């Protein structure tokens, strides 16, 4: 009945070609749709061959959602990217206020010891895969505070992994765009093995990592200087029993914290 109804609408020229009738009534799907006669040359030119890995990389690099962690003057340079002169929206960047919706962390400015746990906590709350751009000299090495500051972290890579280092004091907006382009190129050539290579526990110090109080690396130099210049006794540099008790109490308190 189905063949009879189809035959009623066929023109006479199709009845003369038996092969065309067989193709019409053949309902088996083609193994390779590209080889089907239904696809003309225009359709073949519009087909794009790719892999799931490349498609995933293209989707992620075209829509980076940054979490802005600005603590000093470097962040002012990044704020200029939002304007129409540089227009970072053309790269698909959408700033987010929640780390659970972001996949790019941009650290701009000085990171202190007290702020280090908060920074690591924000990084842990970001879903995988995630990336970090260290912006400015203070973020990368501590900057002007790296020599004699007791509360500055000498490099944010001691806390979280960094994908792109952007030096400068502060870096220009053009340099920030160049760092974003470099990160997009890295994502484009990324594979699933590369994403699984670095585990969270092996890449950075977690929040449970504690900074233990230790002696300064300059103590030996200080001893020599004291002996040569002022002839101080070595006992002047020793820690008193009262100070050691205070240090032990601080360590005991730190170990009891979650």
UniProtKB/TrEMBL annotation:
- Give every NADH:ubiquinone oxidoreductase-like 20kDa subunit domain span: 73-183
Reactions the enzyme catalyzes: a plastoquinone + NADH + (n+1) H(+)(in) = a plastoquinol + NAD(+) + n H(+)(out); a plastoquinone + NADPH + (n+1) H(+)(in) = a plastoquinol + NADP(+) + n H(+)(out)
Q: What is its main location?
A: plastid
Q: How is the cofactor bound?
A: Binds 1 [4Fe-4S] cluster.
Residues at which [4Fe-4S] cluster binds: 73-74, 138, 169
Q: Is Transcription regulation set as a keyword in this record?
A: no
Subcellular localization, as worded in the UniProt entry: Plastid, Chloroplast thylakoid membrane
> Lyase: is it a keyword of this entry?
no
- GO biological process, alphabetically ordered: aerobic respiration; electron transport coupled proton transport; photosynthesis, light reaction
Top-rank taxon:
Eukaryota
- Enzyme Commission number(s): 7.1.1.-
Q: What residues form the membrane-spanning segments?
A: none
Q: Which UniProt keywords apply?
A: 4Fe-4S, Chloroplast, Iron, Iron-sulfur, Membrane, Metal-binding, NAD, NADP, Plastid, Plastoquinone, Quinone, Thylakoid, Translocase, Transport
Q: Which cofactor does it need?
A: [4Fe-4S] cluster
Gene3D superfamilies from the xrefs?
Answer: 3.40.50.12280
Q: GO MF annotations for this entry? A: 4 iron, 4 sulfur cluster binding; iron ion binding; NADH dehydrogenase (ubiquinone) activity; oxidoreductase activity, acting on NAD(P)H, quinone or similar compound as acceptor; quinone binding
The way this protein sits in the membrane is described as:
Peripheral membrane protein
The entry describes its oligomerization and partners as: NDH is composed of at least 16 different subunits, 5 of which are encoded in the nucleus.
Function comment? NDH shuttles electrons from NAD(P)H:plastoquinone, via FMN and iron-sulfur (Fe-S) centers, to quinones in the photosynthetic chain and possibly in a chloroplast respiratory chain. The immediate electron acceptor for the enzyme in this species is believed to be plastoquinone. Couples the redox reaction to proton translocation, and thus conserves the redox energy in a proton gradient.
* PANTHER family noted in UniProt: NADH DEHYDROGENASE, NADH DEHYDROGENASE [UBIQUINONE] IRON-SULFUR PROTEIN 7, MITOCHONDRIAL
In terms of NCBIfam families, this protein maps to: nuoB_fam, PRK06411.1
Q: What is this protein called?
A: NAD(P)H-quinone oxidoreductase subunit K, chloroplastic
Query: Source gene?
Result: ndhK
